[in-house]
Design goal:
- By secondary structure, the chain is α+β, with helices and mostly antiparallel strands.
- The chain contains 2 helices and 9 strands, in the order H-E-E-H-E-E-E-E-E-E-E.
- It has helices spanning about 10-30, 55-70, and strands at about 35-40, 45-50, 75, 80, 85-95, 100-110, 115-125, 135, 140-145.
- Strands 1, 2, 5, 6, 7, 8 and 9 form a 7-stranded antiparallel β-sheet that branches. Strands 3-4 form a two-stranded antiparallel sheet.
- Strand 1 (about 35-40) and strand 2 form a beta hairpin.
- The longest helix has 20 residues, at about 10-30.
């Protein structure tokens, strides 16, 4: 696509914010997030997917491939989703907090048809600590290759 819009639509912001909130709840409970993906079609239908039981890079690649497959096949009637126009995915990772240390982070990727795609992260600590779990607001991590 020659020209893409910058920024984030209200719909994509809502989709990605809900996914991040759900993932943070899982982390507060002490559950592993693995790789979680949500896609939404033009009618507002949403399909959710979880990728587990492999190494983190393979899980992320599987999530990317699933988005591309749904676009190529114009959706999935079994999942009740038409051709995706927006997506968000999250997974556990680490980011460099300073020159010597890494900190646990929830990584986020999100994009929408006709728009640039972005990544972000939210630092967290106290996985499994319930009310003692703490996280930061998502911080931008940069533009990424769009899947849609």
């Amino acid at each position: 696509m020659a020209h893409r819009k910058q920024g984030v639509s209200r719909e994509l912001d809502e989709l990605s914010s809900t996914l991040v909130g759900d993932a943070l709840d899982l982390l507060a409970e002490g559950s592993d997030v693995n790789t979680l993906l949500v896609v939404q079609d033009a009618k507002g239908s949403i399909a959710s997917f979880e990728f587990a039981d492999d190494d983190p890079d393979a899980l992320l690649e599987a999530a990317h491939d699933r988005v591309k497959e749904l676009v190529k096949k114009h959706g999935d009637s079994v999942e009740g989703i038409g051709e995706p126009i927006r997506y968000a995915l999250v997974y556990e990772g680490m980011v460099a907090a300073n020159s010597e240390a890494y900190q646990d982070a929830l990584m986020l990727e999100f994009g929408e048809k006709g728009w640039y795609a972005y990544s972000a992260y939210s630092l967290y600590e106290g996985k499994g600590a319930g009310d003692g779990f703490a996280w930061t607001d998502p911080a931008p991590a940069g533009e990424i290759e769009p899947l849609i």
